[in-house]
Amino acid sequence: MASNIKKLSLANLKDLPETLLYPLKARYVETKKKNGLISDPKSVEILDRLDYDPTKANLVSISQLGVCLRTIIFDEQVFKFLQAYPEGIVVNLGCGLDTRFTRLDNGKVQWFDLDLPDVIDFRKYFFSETARHQFIVKSILDSSWTEQIPKNKKILFVVEGLSFYLTENENRCLLRIIMENFPGSDCLIEILASWYIKIMTLTAGKKKYHDPLDSKVALMLKWGVNNGRELDKWFEGMKFVEEWFVVQKKLDAFPLSYRLCCLLIPSMARVNKIVHLHFM
Fold first, then answer.
1. From 95, 123, 163, 200, which residue has the greatest number of CB atoms within 10 Å?
2. Considering the entire predicted model, what is its pTM?
3. Looking at the DSSP assignment, which residues form a beta bridge with residue 91?
4. What is the overall mean pLDDT for the chain?
5. Which CATH number do you get for residue 147?
6. What is the tens place of the pLDDT at every residue in 150-166?
């Protein structure tokens, strides 16, 4: 981008948390690497347009890699869905500044990005709505958003980087909304281990974090499950299909000390997972 173009001030973030930028930053860093795990030019474009230094508060490589690997898993599964249903519908719940549509658009999919008003207003600086890519300004817990989603096609819901900021009751509410309004649909939801949530919340404010993401997120974490199969007990109309553990996607990408930790304590490699649910 030309250097004479005025950068967008972070004052436009208003009350939005800086953590909104961390997933972008993780993909930015990886994209800038010579042999990065992913390529996400849209994240680079967005951060380059902001009056924001992506290197200001370096993410520890574990967090940065984790975000990129979860991105890869979600991308693979959404791509798989679009191969089976090229004209299907993808609904990105709590989309933030996600850039997945720009990577996976097949020219046929109908895509909905849903988030709160301030977030969608900020997204509009970088994304334009089209007939196939639309924004929904709603809370995910306000079931009226379901009225804006067509029900005549196969639907995949994506819930990335969100569930652990909600209480169990709020997660139940969200999944019940999907189940009751979209039978036959599927959902990919990122979930942290409950034991990890407990450790992070107990130590929040009591230890010095080297990772700025951890220090801010620790106080916000509310819910998790150790195994996606636990969700089978929630509703009769919702079924666990499969789960993928983020760290296990490419363990050799992590620092040696972390790899050894995962080998000695296997649960460390299962902290973060993407769970596939089907609604009957």
1. 95
2. 0.93
3. 112, 157
4. 90
5. 3.40.50.150
6. 999 999 999 999 999 99
